[in-house]
Automatic annotation (TrEMBL):
<comment type="subunit">
    <text>Homodimer.</text>
</comment>
<dbReference type="InterPro" id="IPR004636">
    <property type="entry name" value="AcOrn/SuccOrn_fam"/>
</dbReference>
<dbReference type="GO" id="GO:0008483">
    <property type="term" value="F:transaminase activity"/>
</dbReference>
<feature type="binding site">
    <location>
        <position position="154"/>
    </location>
    <ligand>
        <name>pyridoxal 5'-phosphate</name>
    </ligand>
</feature>
<comment type="pathway">
    <text>Amino-acid biosynthesis; L-arginine biosynthesis; N(2)-acetyl-L-ornithine from L-glutamate: step 4/4.</text>
</comment>
<keyword id="KW-0663">Pyridoxal phosphate</keyword>
<dbReference type="InterPro" id="IPR049704">
    <property type="entry name" value="Aminotrans_3_PPA_site"/>
</dbReference>
<feature type="binding site">
    <location>
        <begin position="121"/>
        <end position="122"/>
    </location>
    <ligand>
        <name>pyridoxal 5'-phosphate</name>
    </ligand>
</feature>
<dbReference type="InterPro" id="IPR005814">
    <property type="entry name" value="Aminotrans_3"/>
</dbReference>
<feature type="binding site">
    <location>
        <begin position="245"/>
        <end position="248"/>
    </location>
    <ligand>
        <name>pyridoxal 5'-phosphate</name>
    </ligand>
</feature>
<feature type="binding site">
    <location>
        <position position="302"/>
    </location>
    <ligand>
        <name>pyridoxal 5'-phosphate</name>
    </ligand>
</feature>
<keyword id="KW-0055">Arginine biosynthesis</keyword>
<feature type="binding site">
    <location>
        <position position="157"/>
    </location>
    <ligand>
        <name>N(2)-acetyl-L-ornithine</name>
    </ligand>
</feature>
<feature type="compositionally biased region" description="Polar residues">
    <location>
        <begin position="12"/>
        <end position="21"/>
    </location>
</feature>
<dbReference type="InterPro" id="IPR050103">
    <property type="entry name" value="Class-III_PLP-dep_AT"/>
</dbReference>
<keyword id="KW-0028">Amino-acid biosynthesis</keyword>
<feature type="region of interest" description="Disordered">
    <location>
        <begin position="1"/>
        <end position="21"/>
    </location>
</feature>
Length: 424
């Protein structure tokens, strides 16, 4: 039985605008790094958000797999309020009790022994890359360590993580990239074996594999169980590190707390960010004690693990557990996939596949037709449903983890209407 608390009804806004949001003024002063939809959001409650003109949307984006408890959840409001009144930021010059408590929760609820806190997914992956490199130099005696990553992966936008990201479109113009990365096709064990033997030359050797248990941005592609078990075996045999990027799939989104639980293997190092704070910026890198080789001064973050972010994230973690939200993720995920498959069956010439775990799901469109995921996302937005593409041909569904049966039903009906409109 779900005991999910209803989100507070938002107060009637006195700022509802009669004219559309002035995107031109915005674009004059904000760098154009994003191709934004012409929509300005102002408030939210539960799985619903409202734009500046008071129009309501069902939010199946959740800040891109981030707002696990939805918007304006009473737990978030209380945690944020309490922590800001107590202490919000000091420095890692001192012990921070909330940081220790959050780390303890993560360690007790995962295969990890230690945690490093930062502020985003890219930073968590940077920390993992640095830890793997130090482990390579000091334990594996590799002079030029190579980290293998997958084609169509996504690991972030900093220079090292965009290099790790196996998608040339994100790297264009930013070369020279960071050395020490090599790419292999996802879910292809022969390619990994070949790369490891080919790269064992001179000072260069493979030191780690960095991979998503389910590729999110690259098209919502779940990892193959046999592939991941073989990866684990290879890493154990030659002593290299297996690193999982759980930034999008972790913290309950998959219906289990961590994506690796679907694959029956444990990583040596893994990262989390998006869902960890329920929308408050926080990132974390977890490791087993054997590969925790950092010494004081070797890695740091000014904001990382501050009382505010850790206090709020701890409340989010405890709420996931206390309210048995993972059960809701599994149930609503099944309902959503069943509904998406029913729609796919009606449009076989347009939709090729529905796939995912828990509440991270993708619907893939035929490669041979002109219609893109963005076309359907736009049509759904016009009908009052927010969705996000994962690549040109996949529509991604990542609602808050507290989404209700009724909301999933509404989303499915709205999506079907949108598909009918764009294909008419
Ligand atoms: C979003 C994402 C990142 C990057 O996270 P940021 O917080 O944007 O830096 C890294 N890895 C995966 C798998 C992601 O989905």
């Amino acid at each position: 039985m779900q005991t999910l608390k209803p989100a507070a009804i938002p107060p009637q806004s006195d700022s509802v605008q009669s004219t559309p949001f002035d995107t031109d003024s915005f674009n004059q002063v904000v760098m154009s790094t994003y191709a934004r939809f012409p929509l300005a959001l102002e408030k939210g409650a539960g799985c619903r958000v409202w734009d500046t003109q008071g129009r309501e949307y069902l939010d199946f984006v959740a800040g891109i797999a981030t707002c696990t408890l939805g918007h304006a959840h009473p737990v978030l409001i209380e945690a944020v309020t309490k922590q800001i009144q107590k202490l919000h930021h000091v420095s890692n010059l001192y012990y921070i009790p909330e940081q220790g408590e959050l780390a303890k929760w993560i360690v007790e609820h995962s295969c990890s022994d230690r945690v490093f806190f930062c502020n985003s997914g890219a930073e968590a992956n940077e920390a993992a890359i640095k830890l793997a490199r130090k482990y390579a130099h000091t334990v594996l005696q590799i002079d030029k360590p190579i980290i293998l990553t997958a084609h169509a992966s996504f690991h972030g936008r900093t220079l090292a993580t965009v290099t790790a990201t196996g998608q040339p479109k994100y790297q264009k113009y930013f070369d020279p990239l960071v050395p020490g990365f090599h790419y292999v096709p996802y879910n292809d064990i022969a390619a990994i074996e070949a790369a490891i033997s080919e790269l064992d030359e001179g000072d260069y050797r493979v030191a780690a594999i960095l991979i998503e248990p389910l590729q999110g941005e690259g098209g919502v592609r779940p990892g193959d169980v046999a592939y991941f078990q073989k990866l684990r075996k290879i890493c154990d045999e030659i002593g290299i590190l297996l690193i999982f990027d759980e930034v999008q799939v972790g913290m309950g989104r998959s219906g289990k707390l961590w994506g690796y639980e679907h694959l029956g293997v444990e990583p040596d190092i893994f990262t989390s960010a998006k869902a960890l704070g329920g929308g408050i910026p926080i990132g974390a890198m977890m490791s087993k004690s054997f590969c925790d080789v950092f010494q004081p001064g070797e890695h740091a973050s000014t904001f990382g693990g501050n009382p505010f972010a850790c206090g709020v994230a701890l409340s989010v973690c405890q709420t996931l557990e206390r309210e048995n939200i993972l059960q809701n993720v599994q149930d609503r995920g099944e309902q959503l996939r069943d509904g998406l498959r029913a729609i796919a069956a009606k449009y076989p010439h347009i939709i090729t596949e529905v796939r995912g775990w828990g509440l991270i799901n993708g619907m893939e469109l035929q490669a041979s037709i002109q219609l893109t995921a963005a076309d359907i996302v736009k049509a759904a937005m016009d009908e009052g449903l927010l969705l996000v593409p994962a690549g040109p041909k996949v529509i991604r569904f990542v609602p808050p983890l507290i989404v209700t049966e009724k909301e999933v039903e509404t989303a499915l009906q709205t999506l079907e209407k949108a598909i009918a409109t764009v294909t008419a």
